[in-house]
Amino acid sequence: MLNKEPEKINPNNNSLGINFKNSKKIENYITNSHYKWVDDVVTGPVLGETLVVYVDNSRVKKIVKLDEQNLIINIEKNTKISLKNIDVQISNLKQ
Questions:
Q1: Which of 5-14, 18-27, 37-46 has the lowest mean pLDDT?
Q2: What was the pLDDT predicted at 18?
Q3: Model pTM score
Q4: Angle, helix 58-66 to helix 68-79, in steps of 10 degrees
Q5: Distance CA 45, CA 66 (A)
């Protein structure tokens, strides 16, 4: 018989692979950071060891990709969260 009760999602370890606690820490860091492109991006979830970042256009996407390694190092230094890469995507509204 199926369980009709909704399953509670653990925000740090769940079947979706999303770490909500780390996502919020990184969002706060990027929002308060010194990067010139910070107003043109929206941080998404942390999926495993990958941060998803949404941008408005391809120009900003290229700039964020150029800054990727520097951003990963600074995130690890300031939030103690280790990432392997950043997935930069153009937001659905702008595609």
A1: 5-14
A2: 81
A3: 0.79
A4: 60
A5: 20
